[in-house]
Specification:
The complex is a heterodimer of chains A (382) and B (157).
Chain A (H helix, E strand, L loop, with lengths): L2 H16 L10 H7 L4 E4 L5 E4 L1 H6 L4 H4 L4 H4 L5 H10 L4 E10 L5 E10 L7 E7 L1 H10 L8 H28 L3 H26 L9 E3 L1 H16 L3 E6 L7 E3 L1 H17 L6 E9 L4 E3 L6 E3 L2 E7 L6 H4 L17 H11 L3 E7 L2 E8 L9
Parallel strand pairs in A: 7-9
Antiparallel strand pairs in A: 1-2, 1-5, 3-4, 4-5, 6-8, 9-12, 10-11, 12-14, 13-14
Chain B lengths: L4 E5 L3 H12 L4 E5 L2 H9 L5 E5 L7 H11 L5 E5 L4 H9 L4 E4 L4 H13 L37
Parallel strand pairs in B: 1-2, 1-3, 3-4, 4-5
Classes of the chains: A alpha+beta (382), B alpha/beta (157).
Protein backbone atom coordinates (compact mmCIF):
# COMPACT_ATOMS: atom_id res chain seq x y z
CA UNK A 1 0.00 0.00 0.00
CA UNK A 2 1.84 3.17 0.98
CA UNK A 3 5.02 4.08 2.74
CA UNK A 4 3.14 5.81 5.58
CA UNK A 5 1.06 2.81 6.27
CA UNK A 6 4.09 0.53 5.96
CA UNK A 7 5.84 2.53 8.69
CA UNK A 8 2.74 2.22 10.83
CA UNK A 9 2.58 -1.47 10.08
CA UNK A 10 6.14 -2.00 11.31
CA UNK A 11 5.20 -0.54 14.67
CA UNK A 12 2.06 -2.58 14.75
CA UNK A 13 4.08 -5.72 13.98
CA UNK A 14 6.40 -5.03 16.89
CA UNK A 15 3.43 -4.66 19.17
CA UNK A 16 2.01 -7.89 17.87
CA UNK A 17 5.13 -9.78 18.82
CA UNK A 18 4.80 -8.48 22.34
CA UNK A 19 1.14 -9.21 22.66
CA UNK A 20 0.71 -12.62 21.14
CA UNK A 21 -2.79 -13.02 22.46
CA UNK A 22 -4.03 -9.97 20.64
CA UNK A 23 -2.53 -10.95 17.31
CA UNK A 24 -5.59 -12.46 15.75
CA UNK A 25 -7.99 -9.70 16.68
CA UNK A 26 -5.76 -6.62 15.98
CA UNK A 27 -7.06 -4.45 13.14
CA UNK A 28 -4.71 -3.84 10.22
CA UNK A 29 -2.96 -0.51 9.80
CA UNK A 30 -5.30 0.65 7.04
CA UNK A 31 -8.27 0.28 9.37
CA UNK A 32 -6.43 2.32 11.98
CA UNK A 33 -5.77 5.21 9.60
CA UNK A 34 -9.34 4.99 8.34
CA UNK A 35 -10.63 5.28 11.89
CA UNK A 36 -8.76 8.52 12.59
CA UNK A 37 -11.27 11.33 13.13
CA UNK A 38 -8.89 13.89 11.62
CA UNK A 39 -8.01 14.22 7.94
CA UNK A 40 -4.78 12.49 6.86
CA UNK A 41 -3.30 12.94 3.40
CA UNK A 42 -0.22 11.14 2.10
CA UNK A 43 1.69 12.99 -0.60
CA UNK A 44 4.55 11.60 -2.69
CA UNK A 45 7.74 13.34 -3.79
CA UNK A 46 6.02 14.83 -6.84
CA UNK A 47 3.25 16.39 -4.73
CA UNK A 48 0.78 13.77 -5.92
CA UNK A 49 -1.82 12.65 -3.37
CA UNK A 50 -1.40 8.91 -2.84
CA UNK A 51 -3.75 8.26 0.04
CA UNK A 52 -6.57 10.01 1.88
CA UNK A 53 -8.53 8.69 4.83
CA UNK A 54 -12.31 9.08 5.08
CA UNK A 55 -11.96 12.16 7.31
CA UNK A 56 -9.91 13.80 4.55
CA UNK A 57 -12.57 12.89 1.99
CA UNK A 58 -15.07 14.68 4.15
CA UNK A 59 -12.77 17.64 4.67
CA UNK A 60 -12.06 18.14 0.97
CA UNK A 61 -15.63 17.29 0.08
CA UNK A 62 -14.66 14.67 -2.49
CA UNK A 63 -14.20 10.93 -2.62
CA UNK A 64 -10.84 9.18 -2.40
CA UNK A 65 -11.12 8.23 -6.08
CA UNK A 66 -11.21 11.90 -7.05
CA UNK A 67 -8.62 13.09 -4.55
CA UNK A 68 -6.05 10.39 -5.24
CA UNK A 69 -3.55 11.16 -8.01
CA UNK A 70 -4.31 14.87 -7.85
CA UNK A 71 -1.61 17.36 -6.98
CA UNK A 72 -1.68 18.76 -3.45
CA UNK A 73 -1.84 22.31 -4.80
CA UNK A 74 -5.09 21.39 -6.55
CA UNK A 75 -6.60 20.47 -3.22
CA UNK A 76 -5.67 23.66 -1.43
CA UNK A 77 -5.53 27.22 -2.70
CA UNK A 78 -2.31 28.04 -4.53
CA UNK A 79 -0.99 30.32 -1.80
CA UNK A 80 -1.90 28.03 1.06
CA UNK A 81 0.60 28.01 3.93
CA UNK A 82 0.24 24.24 3.82
CA UNK A 83 2.39 24.08 0.67
CA UNK A 84 5.10 26.04 2.45
CA UNK A 85 4.96 23.58 5.35
CA UNK A 86 5.43 20.65 2.98
CA UNK A 87 8.41 22.42 1.42
CA UNK A 88 9.92 23.00 4.86
CA UNK A 89 9.69 19.32 5.69
CA UNK A 90 11.30 18.37 2.37
CA UNK A 91 14.06 20.87 3.16
CA UNK A 92 15.12 18.65 6.00
CA UNK A 93 12.80 19.24 8.91
CA UNK A 94 11.36 15.97 10.16
CA UNK A 95 8.03 17.39 11.20
CA UNK A 96 6.39 20.80 11.25
CA UNK A 97 3.23 21.86 13.03
CA UNK A 98 1.50 25.10 12.23
CA UNK A 99 -1.47 26.35 14.18
CA UNK A 100 -4.30 28.34 12.70
CA UNK A 101 -3.75 27.68 9.01
CA UNK A 102 -6.57 29.14 6.93
CA UNK A 103 -7.95 26.75 4.36
CA UNK A 104 -10.59 27.26 1.72
CA UNK A 105 -12.68 24.26 0.82
CA UNK A 106 -13.65 23.58 -2.82
CA UNK A 107 -16.84 25.46 -2.08
CA UNK A 108 -14.85 28.38 -0.74
CA UNK A 109 -15.87 27.83 2.82
CA UNK A 110 -13.14 29.29 5.00
CA UNK A 111 -11.84 27.06 7.74
CA UNK A 112 -8.96 27.14 10.14
CA UNK A 113 -6.96 24.05 10.90
CA UNK A 114 -3.89 23.03 12.80
CA UNK A 115 -1.68 21.31 10.28
CA UNK A 116 1.06 18.81 10.97
CA UNK A 117 3.39 17.73 8.18
CA UNK A 118 5.69 14.77 8.80
CA UNK A 119 8.39 13.31 6.58
CA UNK A 120 8.08 9.60 5.79
CA UNK A 121 11.37 7.89 6.65
CA UNK A 122 13.10 6.17 3.73
CA UNK A 123 10.73 7.61 1.15
CA UNK A 124 12.32 10.69 -0.38
CA UNK A 125 9.96 13.62 -0.57
CA UNK A 126 6.97 11.72 0.74
CA UNK A 127 5.11 13.52 3.49
CA UNK A 128 2.13 12.82 5.68
CA UNK A 129 -0.20 15.78 6.15
CA UNK A 130 -2.45 15.70 9.20
CA UNK A 131 -5.13 18.34 9.68
CA UNK A 132 -7.23 19.16 12.67
CA UNK A 133 -10.15 21.47 12.23
CA UNK A 134 -10.61 23.95 15.03
CA UNK A 135 -14.04 23.98 16.52
CA UNK A 136 -13.89 27.40 18.13
CA UNK A 137 -12.29 28.74 15.00
CA UNK A 138 -15.12 27.17 13.06
CA UNK A 139 -17.59 29.20 15.03
CA UNK A 140 -15.68 32.38 14.41
CA UNK A 141 -15.38 31.51 10.75
CA UNK A 142 -19.08 31.23 10.35
CA UNK A 143 -19.38 34.79 11.46
CA UNK A 144 -16.29 36.19 9.86
CA UNK A 145 -16.02 34.48 6.52
CA UNK A 146 -17.95 37.11 4.68
CA UNK A 147 -16.37 39.94 6.60
CA UNK A 148 -13.07 38.90 5.16
CA UNK A 149 -11.53 39.55 8.56
CA UNK A 150 -8.47 37.62 9.53
CA UNK A 151 -8.14 35.55 12.62
CA UNK A 152 -6.70 38.11 14.92
CA UNK A 153 -7.60 40.29 17.85
CA UNK A 154 -9.56 42.31 15.33
CA UNK A 155 -11.45 39.26 14.14
CA UNK A 156 -12.28 38.26 17.67
CA UNK A 157 -13.50 41.78 18.42
CA UNK A 158 -15.87 41.54 15.48
CA UNK A 159 -17.16 38.14 16.57
CA UNK A 160 -17.58 39.37 20.12
CA UNK A 161 -19.46 42.44 18.92
CA UNK A 162 -21.80 40.14 17.04
CA UNK A 163 -22.35 37.95 20.08
CA UNK A 164 -23.04 40.94 22.31
CA UNK A 165 -25.43 42.68 19.96
CA UNK A 166 -27.83 39.75 19.75
CA UNK A 167 -28.74 39.74 23.46
CA UNK A 168 -28.70 43.55 23.39
CA UNK A 169 -31.42 43.45 20.74
CA UNK A 170 -33.53 41.30 23.01
CA UNK A 171 -33.01 43.53 26.05
CA UNK A 172 -33.61 46.73 24.15
CA UNK A 173 -36.69 45.39 22.39
CA UNK A 174 -38.19 44.03 25.62
CA UNK A 175 -37.64 47.38 27.33
CA UNK A 176 -39.35 49.20 24.49
CA UNK A 177 -42.31 46.82 24.60
CA UNK A 178 -42.68 47.36 28.35
CA UNK A 179 -42.49 51.09 27.79
CA UNK A 180 -45.63 51.01 25.63
CA UNK A 181 -47.82 50.28 28.66
CA UNK A 182 -45.65 51.67 31.42
CA UNK A 183 -46.50 54.43 33.87
CA UNK A 184 -44.61 57.69 33.61
CA UNK A 185 -42.29 56.69 36.45
CA UNK A 186 -41.61 53.26 34.98
CA UNK A 187 -41.03 54.78 31.59
CA UNK A 188 -38.04 56.57 33.02
CA UNK A 189 -36.61 53.16 33.86
CA UNK A 190 -37.33 51.53 30.51
CA UNK A 191 -35.70 54.53 28.83
CA UNK A 192 -32.69 53.96 31.03
CA UNK A 193 -32.48 50.38 29.80
CA UNK A 194 -32.63 51.37 26.13
CA UNK A 195 -30.14 54.18 26.59
CA UNK A 196 -27.68 52.00 28.43
CA UNK A 197 -27.95 49.18 25.88
CA UNK A 198 -27.25 51.79 23.22
CA UNK A 199 -24.15 52.75 25.16
CA UNK A 200 -22.91 49.16 25.19
CA UNK A 201 -23.70 48.97 21.50
CA UNK A 202 -21.57 52.03 20.77
CA UNK A 203 -18.75 50.48 22.72
CA UNK A 204 -18.79 47.24 20.74
CA UNK A 205 -19.11 49.26 17.55
CA UNK A 206 -15.88 50.98 18.41
CA UNK A 207 -14.29 47.62 19.11
CA UNK A 208 -15.48 46.43 15.77
CA UNK A 209 -13.79 49.35 14.10
CA UNK A 210 -10.53 47.58 14.81
CA UNK A 211 -11.58 44.83 12.49
CA UNK A 212 -12.65 47.21 9.79
CA UNK A 213 -9.67 46.82 7.53
CA UNK A 214 -11.35 47.78 4.32
CA UNK A 215 -9.24 50.16 2.28
CA UNK A 216 -10.04 53.80 2.87
CA UNK A 217 -9.83 56.57 0.35
CA UNK A 218 -6.76 58.77 0.68
CA UNK A 219 -6.21 62.21 -0.70
CA UNK A 220 -3.85 65.08 0.05
CA UNK A 221 -5.16 66.56 3.30
CA UNK A 222 -4.41 69.99 4.70
CA UNK A 223 -3.51 69.08 8.27
CA UNK A 224 -4.04 72.68 9.43
CA UNK A 225 -7.63 72.56 8.23
CA UNK A 226 -8.03 69.29 10.16
CA UNK A 227 -6.55 70.84 13.32
CA UNK A 228 -8.80 73.86 12.95
CA UNK A 229 -11.84 71.62 12.66
CA UNK A 230 -10.79 69.60 15.70
CA UNK A 231 -10.13 72.74 17.72
CA UNK A 232 -13.61 74.06 16.99
CA UNK A 233 -15.20 70.72 17.92
CA UNK A 234 -13.39 70.58 21.24
CA UNK A 235 -13.97 74.26 21.98
CA UNK A 236 -17.72 73.83 21.51
CA UNK A 237 -17.85 71.06 24.12
CA UNK A 238 -15.30 72.35 26.62
CA UNK A 239 -16.04 76.05 26.31
CA UNK A 240 -13.85 78.59 28.03
CA UNK A 241 -11.95 76.14 30.19
CA UNK A 242 -9.38 75.61 27.45
CA UNK A 243 -7.18 78.17 25.76
CA UNK A 244 -5.73 77.14 22.41
CA UNK A 245 -2.36 78.24 21.08
CA UNK A 246 -1.57 77.47 17.46
CA UNK A 247 1.99 77.25 16.23
CA UNK A 248 1.78 76.11 12.64
CA UNK A 249 4.41 75.83 9.97
CA UNK A 250 2.54 77.31 7.00
CA UNK A 251 4.93 75.70 4.50
CA UNK A 252 4.02 72.18 5.62
CA UNK A 253 3.05 70.04 2.62
CA UNK A 254 -0.30 68.26 2.66
CA UNK A 255 -0.52 64.87 4.35
CA UNK A 256 -1.57 62.01 2.09
CA UNK A 257 -4.31 60.31 4.03
CA UNK A 258 -7.93 59.98 4.95
CA UNK A 259 -9.32 63.23 6.33
CA UNK A 260 -12.01 61.64 8.51
CA UNK A 261 -9.52 59.28 10.09
CA UNK A 262 -7.03 62.07 10.73
CA UNK A 263 -9.81 64.10 12.36
CA UNK A 264 -10.56 61.08 14.53
CA UNK A 265 -6.93 60.70 15.59
CA UNK A 266 -6.38 64.36 16.44
CA UNK A 267 -9.82 64.80 17.99
CA UNK A 268 -8.96 61.96 20.32
CA UNK A 269 -5.70 63.58 21.36
CA UNK A 270 -7.08 67.08 21.76
CA UNK A 271 -10.07 65.76 23.72
CA UNK A 272 -7.75 63.79 25.98
CA UNK A 273 -5.74 66.97 26.51
CA UNK A 274 -8.86 69.02 27.22
CA UNK A 275 -10.11 66.46 29.72
CA UNK A 276 -6.78 66.59 31.53
CA UNK A 277 -7.05 70.34 32.03
CA UNK A 278 -6.71 71.71 35.55
CA UNK A 279 -9.85 73.09 37.21
CA UNK A 280 -9.20 76.74 36.58
CA UNK A 281 -8.53 76.22 32.90
CA UNK A 282 -5.52 75.26 30.91
CA UNK A 283 -3.68 75.61 27.69
CA UNK A 284 -3.37 73.33 24.67
CA UNK A 285 -0.67 74.04 22.14
CA UNK A 286 -1.31 72.72 18.66
CA UNK A 287 1.83 72.75 16.53
CA UNK A 288 3.03 71.47 13.19
CA UNK A 289 6.54 71.38 11.88
CA UNK A 290 8.75 69.85 9.27
CA UNK A 291 11.70 67.88 10.67
CA UNK A 292 13.58 66.45 7.70
CA UNK A 293 16.07 64.60 9.86
CA UNK A 294 13.54 62.70 11.90
CA UNK A 295 13.62 58.94 11.51
CA UNK A 296 11.75 56.33 13.41
CA UNK A 297 11.86 52.57 13.64
CA UNK A 298 8.35 51.28 13.18
CA UNK A 299 7.16 47.96 14.48
CA UNK A 300 6.98 45.55 11.58
CA UNK A 301 8.66 48.02 9.27
CA UNK A 302 11.99 47.52 7.60
CA UNK A 303 14.62 49.74 9.09
CA UNK A 304 14.18 53.33 10.10
CA UNK A 305 11.73 55.42 8.16
CA UNK A 306 11.66 59.10 7.49
CA UNK A 307 8.69 60.70 9.14
CA UNK A 308 9.29 64.41 8.72
CA UNK A 309 5.74 65.72 9.18
CA UNK A 310 5.13 66.34 12.87
CA UNK A 311 1.80 67.30 14.42
CA UNK A 312 1.94 67.83 18.15
CA UNK A 313 -0.69 68.33 20.81
CA UNK A 314 0.68 69.65 24.11
CA UNK A 315 -1.20 70.37 27.30
CA UNK A 316 -0.37 71.59 30.79
CA UNK A 317 -2.61 69.10 32.57
CA UNK A 318 -1.75 66.55 35.20
CA UNK A 319 0.12 64.22 32.86
CA UNK A 320 -0.19 60.53 32.12
CA UNK A 321 -0.03 58.42 35.31
CA UNK A 322 3.26 56.51 35.55
CA UNK A 323 1.63 53.10 35.67
CA UNK A 324 -0.27 53.75 32.44
CA UNK A 325 2.68 54.95 30.38
CA UNK A 326 3.92 51.57 29.23
CA UNK A 327 0.47 50.44 28.10
CA UNK A 328 -1.01 53.70 26.93
CA UNK A 329 -1.70 52.48 23.39
CA UNK A 330 -3.05 49.08 24.39
CA UNK A 331 -6.77 48.56 23.94
CA UNK A 332 -8.93 48.92 27.07
CA UNK A 333 -6.33 50.94 28.95
CA UNK A 334 -7.74 54.20 30.21
CA UNK A 335 -6.89 56.71 32.88
CA UNK A 336 -10.30 58.33 32.68
CA UNK A 337 -13.38 57.32 34.65
CA UNK A 338 -15.79 55.88 32.12
CA UNK A 339 -13.14 55.80 29.40
CA UNK A 340 -13.29 52.87 27.01
CA UNK A 341 -9.55 52.74 26.50
CA UNK A 342 -10.02 52.47 22.78
CA UNK A 343 -9.35 56.01 21.62
CA UNK A 344 -5.57 56.00 21.65
CA UNK A 345 -5.19 52.43 20.48
CA UNK A 346 -7.47 53.19 17.56
CA UNK A 347 -5.51 56.38 16.89
CA UNK A 348 -2.29 54.37 16.87
CA UNK A 349 -3.81 51.87 14.45
CA UNK A 350 -4.95 54.61 12.07
CA UNK A 351 -1.62 56.42 12.16
CA UNK A 352 0.20 53.15 11.55
CA UNK A 353 -2.01 52.55 8.52
CA UNK A 354 -0.92 55.96 7.30
CA UNK A 355 2.67 54.77 7.53
CA UNK A 356 3.41 56.90 10.58
CA UNK A 357 3.78 56.62 14.31
CA UNK A 358 2.76 58.25 17.56
CA UNK A 359 5.07 59.14 20.43
CA UNK A 360 4.55 60.99 23.65
CA UNK A 361 6.34 62.63 26.58
CA UNK A 362 4.51 63.27 29.77
CA UNK A 363 5.26 64.82 33.10
CA UNK A 364 2.96 66.74 35.43
CA UNK A 365 2.18 70.07 33.78
CA UNK A 366 3.52 69.13 30.36
CA UNK A 367 2.25 66.33 28.16
CA UNK A 368 2.97 66.19 24.47
CA UNK A 369 1.63 63.75 21.91
CA UNK A 370 3.33 63.79 18.55
CA UNK A 371 1.94 62.27 15.37
CA UNK A 372 4.75 61.59 12.91
CA UNK A 373 3.79 61.10 9.29
CA UNK A 374 5.72 60.26 6.14
CA UNK A 375 6.17 62.67 3.28
CA UNK A 376 4.15 61.73 0.25
CA UNK A 377 6.01 62.11 -3.01
CA UNK A 378 3.97 62.15 -6.20
CA UNK A 379 3.49 58.83 -7.90
CA UNK A 380 4.50 56.90 -4.86
CA UNK A 381 1.97 54.39 -3.65
CA UNK A 382 1.28 55.01 0.00
CA UNK B 1 -51.67 46.63 6.12
CA UNK B 2 -52.58 44.93 9.36
CA UNK B 3 -53.39 41.28 9.82
CA UNK B 4 -50.52 40.14 7.65
CA UNK B 5 -48.65 36.90 8.30
CA UNK B 6 -45.02 37.60 9.09
CA UNK B 7 -42.38 34.87 9.05
CA UNK B 8 -39.51 35.49 11.46
CA UNK B 9 -36.25 33.51 11.49
CA UNK B 10 -33.61 34.17 14.14
CA UNK B 11 -31.68 31.71 16.23
CA UNK B 12 -31.81 34.04 19.23
CA UNK B 13 -34.87 33.28 21.33
CA UNK B 14 -34.97 36.74 22.93
CA UNK B 15 -35.20 38.39 19.53
CA UNK B 16 -37.95 36.02 18.43
CA UNK B 17 -39.92 36.88 21.57
CA UNK B 18 -39.51 40.61 21.05
CA UNK B 19 -40.42 40.49 17.35
CA UNK B 20 -43.39 38.24 18.07
CA UNK B 21 -44.82 40.62 20.66
CA UNK B 22 -44.02 43.82 18.84
CA UNK B 23 -45.63 42.67 15.60
CA UNK B 24 -48.55 40.90 17.24
CA UNK B 25 -49.42 44.18 18.97
CA UNK B 26 -49.71 45.68 15.48
CA UNK B 27 -52.31 43.07 14.65
CA UNK B 28 -50.07 40.77 12.64
CA UNK B 29 -49.96 37.03 12.76
CA UNK B 30 -46.36 36.14 13.58
CA UNK B 31 -44.64 32.79 13.06
CA UNK B 32 -41.13 32.38 14.42
CA UNK B 33 -38.39 29.84 13.87
CA UNK B 34 -34.79 29.47 14.94
CA UNK B 35 -33.48 28.03 11.69
CA UNK B 36 -33.36 28.69 7.98
CA UNK B 37 -34.77 25.30 6.97
CA UNK B 38 -38.14 25.94 8.62
CA UNK B 39 -38.30 29.41 7.12
CA UNK B 40 -37.62 27.94 3.69
CA UNK B 41 -40.35 25.32 4.19
CA UNK B 42 -42.89 28.02 5.06
CA UNK B 43 -41.88 30.15 2.10
CA UNK B 44 -41.98 27.17 -0.25
CA UNK B 45 -45.50 26.37 1.02
CA UNK B 46 -46.59 29.82 -0.04
CA UNK B 47 -47.08 31.03 3.52
CA UNK B 48 -46.53 34.56 4.83
CA UNK B 49 -46.72 38.10 3.46
CA UNK B 50 -43.34 39.22 4.76
CA UNK B 51 -40.08 37.60 5.87
CA UNK B 52 -37.82 38.96 8.61
CA UNK B 53 -34.61 36.97 8.79
CA UNK B 54 -31.32 36.95 10.64
CA UNK B 55 -28.08 36.39 8.74
CA UNK B 56 -26.10 33.96 10.90
CA UNK B 57 -28.21 30.92 11.69
CA UNK B 58 -27.10 27.44 12.70
CA UNK B 59 -28.05 25.63 9.51
CA UNK B 60 -27.74 28.23 6.77
CA UNK B 61 -26.71 31.80 6.23
CA UNK B 62 -29.74 34.02 5.73
CA UNK B 63 -28.01 35.81 2.87
CA UNK B 64 -27.59 32.48 1.04
CA UNK B 65 -31.29 31.81 1.45
CA UNK B 66 -32.29 35.21 0.09
CA UNK B 67 -31.79 34.60 -3.65
CA UNK B 68 -33.66 31.31 -3.40
CA UNK B 69 -36.65 33.01 -1.80
CA UNK B 70 -36.49 35.77 -4.39
CA UNK B 71 -36.49 33.22 -7.22
CA UNK B 72 -39.43 31.31 -5.83
CA UNK B 73 -41.50 34.26 -4.64
CA UNK B 74 -40.17 37.51 -6.09
CA UNK B 75 -43.09 39.47 -4.65
CA UNK B 76 -42.36 38.49 -1.03
CA UNK B 77 -40.59 41.34 0.78
CA UNK B 78 -37.64 40.29 2.95
CA UNK B 79 -36.22 42.30 5.80
CA UNK B 80 -32.71 41.25 6.82
CA UNK B 81 -31.48 41.94 10.33
CA UNK B 82 -27.98 41.33 11.56
CA UNK B 83 -25.63 42.11 14.38
CA UNK B 84 -22.96 42.74 11.76
CA UNK B 85 -23.23 46.46 11.49
CA UNK B 86 -20.83 46.62 8.61
CA UNK B 87 -21.75 48.49 5.50
CA UNK B 88 -20.63 45.47 3.54
CA UNK B 89 -23.30 43.18 4.99
CA UNK B 90 -25.92 45.84 4.38
CA UNK B 91 -24.86 46.32 0.78
CA UNK B 92 -24.78 42.59 0.20
CA UNK B 93 -28.25 42.14 1.66
CA UNK B 94 -29.77 44.86 -0.46
CA UNK B 95 -28.00 43.66 -3.57
CA UNK B 96 -29.42 40.21 -3.00
CA UNK B 97 -32.89 41.69 -3.00
CA UNK B 98 -33.59 42.48 0.64
CA UNK B 99 -36.25 45.15 1.07
CA UNK B 100 -34.48 46.63 4.05
CA UNK B 101 -31.51 45.97 6.28
CA UNK B 102 -31.89 46.43 10.03
CA UNK B 103 -28.71 46.51 12.10
CA UNK B 104 -29.09 44.96 15.56
CA UNK B 105 -29.99 46.19 18.05
CA UNK B 106 -32.80 48.00 16.31
CA UNK B 107 -35.49 50.31 17.57
CA UNK B 108 -38.89 48.61 17.80
CA UNK B 109 -40.55 51.69 16.35
CA UNK B 110 -38.18 51.59 13.37
CA UNK B 111 -39.03 47.94 12.90
CA UNK B 112 -42.77 48.65 12.87
CA UNK B 113 -42.29 51.46 10.34
CA UNK B 114 -40.21 49.21 8.07
CA UNK B 115 -42.75 46.39 8.29
CA UNK B 116 -45.66 48.72 7.49
CA UNK B 117 -43.80 50.16 4.53
CA UNK B 118 -42.79 46.74 3.23
CA UNK B 119 -46.35 45.44 3.45
CA UNK B 120 -47.76 48.56 1.78
CA UNK B 121 -45.22 48.51 -1.05
CA UNK B 122 -46.59 47.55 -4.45
CA UNK B 123 -45.87 43.94 -5.32
CA UNK B 124 -43.53 44.67 -8.17
CA UNK B 125 -42.46 41.72 -10.27
CA UNK B 126 -38.83 40.73 -10.22
CA UNK B 127 -38.10 42.51 -13.47
CA UNK B 128 -39.19 45.90 -12.14
CA UNK B 129 -37.01 48.74 -13.18
CA UNK B 130 -34.64 50.07 -10.61
CA UNK B 131 -34.59 53.50 -12.14
CA UNK B 132 -37.74 54.25 -10.21
CA UNK B 133 -38.38 57.53 -8.51
CA UNK B 134 -36.64 58.18 -5.18
CA UNK B 135 -39.91 57.36 -3.42
CA UNK B 136 -39.48 53.79 -4.61
CA UNK B 137 -36.18 53.46 -2.83
CA UNK B 138 -35.68 50.01 -1.46
CA UNK B 139 -38.60 48.52 -3.25
CA UNK B 140 -36.88 47.19 -6.32
CA UNK B 141 -36.50 43.47 -5.97
CA UNK B 142 -33.20 43.37 -7.68
CA UNK B 143 -31.23 40.28 -8.42
CA UNK B 144 -27.60 39.69 -7.54
CA UNK B 145 -25.14 41.80 -9.40
CA UNK B 146 -27.52 44.61 -10.15
CA UNK B 147 -26.50 47.96 -8.88
CA UNK B 148 -29.06 50.25 -7.47
CA UNK B 149 -27.04 52.97 -5.91
CA UNK B 150 -30.05 54.82 -4.53
CA UNK B 151 -30.93 51.82 -2.42
CA UNK B 152 -27.74 52.19 -0.50
CA UNK B 153 -28.84 55.43 1.05
CA UNK B 154 -30.82 53.70 3.66
CA UNK B 155 -28.46 51.01 4.69
CA UNK B 156 -26.52 53.27 6.98
CA UNK B 157 -27.85 53.98 10.38
Amino acid sequence: MTAGVTAGAATAAARKRKHQAARDSAPDSDAIVRALPDPVVLVDGDDIVRYVNPAAEQFFEAGAGILRDRRLDQLVQFDSPLLALVAKVRDGLAAVTEYGVDMLSPHRRARTVDAQVTAIPDAAGWVLVGLRERTIAQKLDRQLSYLGAGRSVAGIAAALAHEVKNPLSGIRGAAQLLEQNASLADRELTRLITEETDRICRLVDRMEMFSNDHPVERTPVNIHEVLDHVRRLVQSSFGGNVRFVERYDPSLPPVFGNRDQLVQVLLNMVKNAAEAMPEGGGEIILATKFEPGLRLSLAGGNGRQRLPLVVSVRDNGGGVPEDLKAHLFDPFVSGKAGGTGLGLSLAAKIVAEHGGGIEFDSEPGRTEFRVLLPLHSDGEAV
Amino acid sequence: MSGATILVADDDRAIRTVLNQALARQGHDVRTTGNAATLWRWVANGEGNLVITDVVMPDENGLDLLPRIKRLRPELPIVVMSAHSTLLTAIKATELGAYEYLPKPFDINDLVVVVDRALAAPRAPAAASCSASPSARGRCPTGPGSTCSHRRWRIRR
